[in-house]
Amino acid sequence: MFTITEVATPKGVVQYREERFTGCRCRISPDRSKRHVLQPLTLPPDTGDCPFCCDRIFSVTPVFPDGRRIIHGESITFPNMFPFGQGHVVTVITDEHRVDTFTRQQIADALSGQVEALLRYDGYPSINMNFLPSAGASMVHPHMQGLSDVRPSRVMELYMEAGRQYQQRHGMNYWDALREEERASGRYLFGDEILWSAHAVPCGEREVRGLLPVSSISEMDPYIDLLARGILEVLAFYRCMGTYAFNMSIFFDKGSEDNGFHAFCSLISRINPNPSSMSDSAFMERMHGEPIVMTIPEEMGDLYRNGKK
Questions:
Q1: Rg, the chain, Cα only
Q2: Could you read off the pLDDT of 189-236 as tens digits, one per residue?
Q3: Which of 5, 12, 110, 122 is most buried (CB neighbours < 10 A)?
């Protein structure tokens, strides 16, 4: 399912890894961990104007066309005020502005809110999360973001095509083969129905993937609690390793189409928030392979010429 090429350098060995069917690649350089980039957790000061806090959320956040927001437990879901997708929703997970550890119920309720909201759109859905500023979060208050687009994101597209290629060449489902390989490898962490393992060709530091037994988001309800437990297990593992910030994306196929695709949840750890760690690299850049850009290229000429005046 993937290849490893090792190259010797004056400071050790670098691994070049590539997934055979997606072409996704990464470089692993274990000696870079000696740079001591792990910083103590330092959060930015509260400004008192967070739109996700309970004293403001119902007055400043938008509502769905039916005039409502979706509420599950503590979680509150509503349309994103600044969308970068055809369907883009936000779920505020907790009443608390800052959270050290989530409960299973908090994550399960937030996932339920995301699922209910994304079922309103006809596209390729994903549930995503940037936790803390160093992971690209613009808000410290913990929240998830759901996207649904007519076209799948770049990474989703690669895995859909990989599944088709694998079925044609080997006569079996790509995801079933992947589950077998991961379960038998040293990358396997835990789980059965949802199998969690360290991804062989990681898109970020300590990437862990949970392979779900379903394809579409409409099938998720029976697995929400189990998925929440798995996510918390991975986050506890990250904390044991000294990192708190993370990105998460859960990818689903469109509607009830049977393309042989299996949904999966991917998490990566990020550097701890510290005075130098603000990041504009978030889940779209790291997990979906599609940068979110604010400046229209066709406007750059005027911006350049006006700046020269």
A1: 20
A2: 999 999 999 999 999 888 999 999 999 999 999 999 999 999 999 999
A3: 110
pTM of model > 0.85: yes
In a domain, 50, yes or no: no
Question: What would the mean pLDDT of 262-269 be, rounded to a whole number?
Answer: 95
Q: How many domains does the chain have?
A: 2
Question: Quick check: is 47 in a domain?
Answer: no
Asked whether residue 150 is domain-assigned, the answer is yes
Q: Where are the beta strands (DSSP E) in the chain?
A: 2-9, 12-19, 25-28, 70-72, 75-79, 87-92, 124-131, 143-149, 188-190, 195-198, 208-211, 246-251, 264-269
Q: In terms of domains, do 88 and 196 share one?
A: yes
**Interatomic CA distance for residues 159 and 126, integer angstroms:** 14
Sign of the dihedral defined by the CA atoms of residues 210, 29, 245, 145, in that order: negative
DSSP string, 122-176: -SEEEEEEEESGGGT-S-SS-EEEEEEESS--HHHHHHHHHHHHHHHHHSS-HHH
Is residue 305 a part of any domain in this protein? no
The bridge status of strand 12-19 relative to strand 2-9 is antiparallel
